[in-house]
Specification:
The chain has 203 residues and is α/β, with parallel strands linked by helices. The chain has one domain (6-201): Rossmann fold. Helices cover 37% and strands 17% of the residues. It has helices spanning 18-31, 67-72, 89-96, 99-104, 125-138, 152-155, 179-201; strands spanning 6-12, 36-42, 75-81, 111-118, 142-143, 165-168. Strand 1 (6-12), helix 1 (18-31) and strand 2 (36-42) form a beta-alpha-beta unit. Helix 1 (18-31) crosses helix 7 (179-201). The longest helix has 23 residues, at 179-201. The two termini are 26 Å apart.
């Protein structure tokens, strides 16, 4: 990682790996833009059992997000699987604890985008993407979608929306990513990074 490069935070929660794969594709798009580095981070699971806790360090995959990641990033890609048309509780819990960053304006003026995966084709992808935008608007972020200049939006028979990248994982979570889903996820990451560069270099 080049210390002079812009840090694009790719923050996600994933239970079965589909949202994590989307995060990796978005990171690929981010890193295709010169001067940008993707920083993948996740959030701990939450439990309905009050005594249950997560380890301080995940057993595998991306590290847990810290307040410093929000401060240091030039842009944010936010991802979660859908839970009844909304973001997962673990991601909502994280954002509920960001009042300090909200008060300081740590994310204000930074570009952001959202992504999701669902078990069923009409499982609330767009509602989930819209729900994830709400805390980003409250933090003063500039939320980006995918324009229809991406032709895959017109041809996809799986995931992919103008609100953000998405994947139809199937009820068992094992459906492979389609070419359209992959291209749209990479395109979203690239668009986010390009926007961050333009904002960072404006006079």
């Amino acid at each position: 990682m080049n210390q002079a490069n812009l840090i694009i935070l790719v923050l996600f929660y994933s239970r079965h790996g589909a949202t994590r794969k989307l995060a990796e594709l978005i990171a690929q798009g981010v890193e295709s833009v010169p001067g940008c580095d993707a920083r993948l981070r996740t959030v701990p699971a939450v439990s309905s059992v009050a005594e249950a806790t997560e380890a301080d360090v995940p057993a595998e995959g991306a590290p847990y997000v810290e307040a410093q990641d929000l401060q240091e990033c030039a842009a944010l890609a936010l991802g979660s699987p859908t839970r009844f048309g909304n973001m997962a509780a673990a991601m909502k819990y994280f954002w509920d604890g960001t009042a300090t960053q909200w008060l300081s304006g740590a994310l204000a003026g930074k570009p952001a985008c959202v992504f999701t995966s669902t078990g069923s084709l009409h499982g609330g992808q767009e509602a989930t993407l819209l729900s994830m935008m709400i805390p980003l608007f409250h933090h003063g972020m500039m939320v980006l979608g995918l324009p229809y200049t991406n032709p895959e939006l017109m041809t996809t028979a799986s995931g992919g929306t103008p609100y953000g990248a998405s994947h139809w994982a199937g009820l068992d979570g094992k459906l492979a990513f389609t070419d359209d889903e992959k291209k749209l996820a990479v395109a979203l990451g690239r668009r986010l990074a390009e926007t961050a560069v333009k904002l960072h270099t404006r006079p």
